[in-house]
Predict the structure of SEC24 homolog C, COPII coat complex component.
Amino acid sequence: MNVNQHTPMASPYGQPQPGYGQPGYAPLDGGYPAPYAPYNGPTSAYQPGAPPQAPPNSSQPPVSTAYTAAPPTSYAQGPPPASSAPTQPPPPSGPAAPQQYYGGPSPPSQQPFNSSLPPTSQQQFTPAPPPSQQTFPPSSYSGPMPPASQAPAPPVSQPQQSFPPPAQPTFSAPPASQPPAFAPGPPLQNQGSFPPRGPPPSSQPGSFPPPGPPPTSLSSGPYPGQMPPQQHPPPSQPSPYHSGPPPPALFLFCSGAFGQVRGPQPGYAGPYPGQPNYGAPAPAPAPAAPAQKRLDPDAIPSPIQVIEDDRAKSTEPFTTGVRGQAPPLVTTNFQVKDQGNASPRFIRCTAYNIPCTADMAKQSQVPLAAVIKPLATLPPDEIPPYLVDHGESGPIRCNRCKAYMCPYMQFIEGGRRFQCGFCSCVTEVPPHYFQHLDHTGKRMDCYDRPELSLGSYEFWRLSTTNNKLPQPPAFIFLIDVSYNAVKSGMVNIVCEELKTLLDYLPRENPEMDSVVRVGFVTYNKVMHFYNVKSSLAQPQMLVVSDVSDMFVPLLDGFLVNVNESRQVIESLLDQIPEMFADTRETETVFGPVIQAGLEALKAADCAGKLFVFHTSLPIAEAPGKLKNREDKKLIGTDKEKSLFQPQVGFYNTLAKECVAQGCCVDLFLFPNGYVDVATLGVVPVSTGGSVYKYTYFQAQSDRERFLNDLRRDVQKLVGFDAVMRVRTSTGVRATDFFGSFFMSNTTDVELAGLDCDKAITVELKHDDKLSEETGALMQCAVLYTSCSGQRRLRVHNMAVNCCSQLADLYRNCETDTIINFFSKYAFRGILNSPTKAVRDTLINQCAQILACYRKNCASPSSAGQLILPECMKLLPVYLNCVLKGDVLLPGADVSLDDRAYLRQLISCMDVSESHVFFYPRLLPLTKLESDSLPVAVRDSEERLSKGGVYLLETGLHLFLWVGASVQQELLLNIFGTPSFSQIDPSMTSLPVLDNPFSQRLREIIDSFRAERSRYMKLMVVKQEDKTELIFRHFLVEDKSASGGASYVDFLCHMHKEIRQLLS
């Protein structure tokens, strides 16, 4: 979803977009874009105020009852019950009355807890017969409307999330004589055959099948291209979703981990006469309608609840001394104390208790991986890694496996030798490093030496080949001066900003000047180099018009020290916009631009970074010339994968040369059309660089975002010419790597540049058995040149436990890291496989993980229950967010460039960034405390209240959603205007108002931006405005316009997949 684009939106709000359920409408299209069982949307799309709280008796364990249509259901803590008929309605008393519902076991509160099993979260479902009779055809189009010039894409271009219809059990309606079930929210009028939402599956027994004629079924062949023209079934026609006999009911039993279960709204009738009404006023009569049942969203695992629970329990600093201890979640603020393992800010693992054998790992299907961010920035209250000097001979290492000295080395023979923790080889201790051992076998100086007591540290004064210190790095700015670049204002903004930005080049010591040298090039179809030698009065321009054989026309005066040449540089930056103000040249080159920077670094014999500011597809005659290959017809076909692969091999070869020289490339793109990010991004991605993209760049509204990105990119600490190697103890090895880097062999990750934002993900596989006593060790070592020209070696160590019981594995996983790994794995997979195959692989692996847990770790229980491990209960909701994202399931308005850009961006994200990207943070802003943030709400339209204002953060964008009936006082506090209609939706920053609310809101926005590596532009979204479609795209628990399932539907689908695997 392109947020820069001022998307020509759909027709007025009254006609709903396909794919968005709206109050007061019959079902759209008579079917659903994806063949999911129906989700009828929230009762009313915007619910006034907060969701109703549970009734006073909600402390009682929720009870599920059985029906004739369903097999007996049971609790997970005991064997299936003998009888399946409810003996009596639950008494309205509190938890004191122990109730026996079946002839079987009592509710779980009385069951002994099996302490050897990890905690589980249970969803109790009952199976529906597989709906073989119906297939729901996809809608022919479900994105925002394209511009008039652009016809809607043909149906094949809309890849559907095509699962078989899940066993989403539908609750049938009560007989017409009865009052209907509770609906959370006001009763719906004018619904036609759109059934209102049934009761939440809490402690109320459900309803019986309706009398009357069987409903007609949709008899359409699988996936017809177009829908029938009639969009809304007339009110007389029965709902098209009930085909055949009514399916059995769905039960939900939840172990209390997900917050309160919604209770009945006061003023609505109970599910059947005689059912206690728990303190509600007399039931109001309401028209009988067929009630369609769906899972209550409040009764399924809530990401917000899990995040809040983790925050509540993480009050102490996290000490890393205990092996195999999972850290707090990335969403929790915590302090780390390094006591021998690397901080989770440097390394996060998918599991902290890994299986002892390859068979066990294969059985569980839990990926074993680590996300490593070697140069991560630490918060001010944590100590950066200490510098260690081992003298002229360099760091002490194991003779055999070359692991560096670390806390896992065991000193023996009075301290004269040490045994390696990785390969068990014994190595002599050099005389200068000798130290006596104490009575426990530890060295006397253990706590004085970082490498013997800490998880992360850095060696310096490393000997280099032929003892020649590397040259300090250089930054070269290469600016596109073609017609588009000048017209958009980009050239002007860059030149103006560089005058001040050059004072902030990276340096290790803030007191000293930076030693980084700078050079300048402009280009369109030809290259212009500038001599800015300090002895010149005016800069000199040298033009290279033969771009097919690139060379640098000057050596002396191209790369200069900023302070020495300041006046010449400023004069040049003033002249560039004037020189090209009237240019008519629209064509650009790109390959020769990178070649020019590379040749300049080679000539100066140094590493460095190229900052390329580029606008259009390079179609001018030159090496690396590209053609426009964007073809919407290929989306969703087997040929789609070719669109993510580079068009020509030229850039792969060029990337290899750049890495060899330590030349890192950062690319700033300002496209107004297709520029083939998949190809242009090859060099930045292979050299450890970054791609920034500002589609339809407008100086006025995008200037702030671009300049903040540029400032951070120039100033952040970066290492050059880096090599990373991951060593592991016997039994496991690193087999696969994901991120922005280049590999010429199977072990060394080569990075021309490595900055504080880049993460590298490493997959580990077994090559032998592991033992529970010793655990598994990992050491990540990164050799790099610092921005002051020193060779450094940063070392991070990690020890995890090993287990022979699957239950221990499932007790110590980290879902956020697993999702980070899965997304990178999938995004690389689309280079070689159709996106549908990649999505199916992910769903299958996730189902296998959960089925293995169910089969081997959970107490025996009825097949109707969905049982999830406590630390993985959010796996389905997060996985669904990956599956329905723009990369794997694009809407019609998502360009190929956007998808290629996101694919590259996510490949080097750390866990905290991928978390907020896939499950955005949504904060209600009615009350703001000065010291804490409001508790977030779930990413669903039903959580939005018409009278509220919400801030949504995705890590790349910020949205401020304003409800249509917000109080005047709140509008005055935020916008300085009392009326909703006067709010300007085009504003990108909030007015600075003199009131505590405005001040605190701006502080929150600033703090969110400071946490992220990219500047998030603010977009104000008014309820029912056209921009709301973009905002809704990020409400990831709802159905998506591109056919992605809602969380509820996906959970039902996962349950069905798990049951198929188990049967």
User: Anything to note?
Assistant: The radius of gyration is 31 Å. Confidence is low (pLDDT under 50) at residues 5-116, 123-292. The first strand starts at residue 120 and ends at 124. DSSP finds 21 helices and 29 strands in the chain.
